[in-house]
Design goal:
Layout (H helix, E strand, L loop, with lengths): L2 E2 L12 E6 L2 E6 L6 E4 H13 L6
Antiparallel strand pairs: 1-2, 2-3, 3-4
Length: 59
Amino acid sequence: MWRKSSRSNNGGNGSCVEIALFGSVARVRDSKSASNYEVAAPEWASFISAIKRGDFEKK
């Protein structure tokens, strides 16, 4: 099941990031595209941890 980011479409331009977890991978896609990308579970967990730490915040 695909889930949309709560931060998607803030600019009103229809941009959405969606994710679906399938076993040992996370699939990520732009909702306007049929293409999606797979990320292995350990890498996805590292990415989420970095977000929670604020590693991607603008300074």
